[in-house]
Amino acid sequence: MGVVVWFDEPLPWLAIFAAIWGVMAALEFYKAVTSSKQKVPPLTIFGLVWTLFFIISPLFDYPYLNIILLASALALPAIWFLLRRYREGAFMGWAWTVTGILYIGWLLSHLVALRGLDSGRDWVLFALFITFASDSAAYFMGSAIGKHPLAPSISPKKTWEGAAGGILGAIGSGLLLVMLLDLPVTYIQVIPLSIAVSIFGQFGDLLESLFKRRTGVKDSGKAMPGHGGFLDRMDSVVFAGVFVYYYAVILSNG
Fold it and tell me: What residue ranges do the domains of the chain occupy?
């Protein structure tokens, strides 16, 4: 992963990697929704194409592209479902179609956009490594001393002790990354930033757990034995990436 972030020539490798990963994750998303026996299944092909469009959109310097993509993502599936002879369940089919596009395509596009900012390579590495450190620390801390459930109705195995361990892991890795990367933040600034990235990442993990509980699937796929599918591996990263992107934009404009 670090290689595709580091090199951006002759091709935008991170965007290519994110596009492939995102489309595979979207396919798992729509398969999970379809397997949950919705009355009207989502428009899978449309969702995959628009997910791809959103992910690569930061590569194109056109100010209204995101507005066009968002409007078409909302309107075109709605028109399709309204033109159906039988409209029962059409709203849920439309809602799941749009949710997959925004949850995967729009959120993941922030990592691609982050790579294009000043110090973008370092910011992306920061977001990824903080998230991985937070996830790992949360797992080990929760396994070792976790006793108090964080959200038992969503993910019974997650604990407050694990969440605290994730935050500590994020702070430690954040302080280390300030020394290794060329980031325009101080040691004092990186502490609350790392905490926020950890919290957003853990929120994304809980949201993914809620989705799997809603659709009745244990793992989104079997692409990576022992780790689930593509969708399972991006839940924390996309939310952390969104937060780091807007933090970097605000910092650069301030």
Answer: 1-116, 119-254
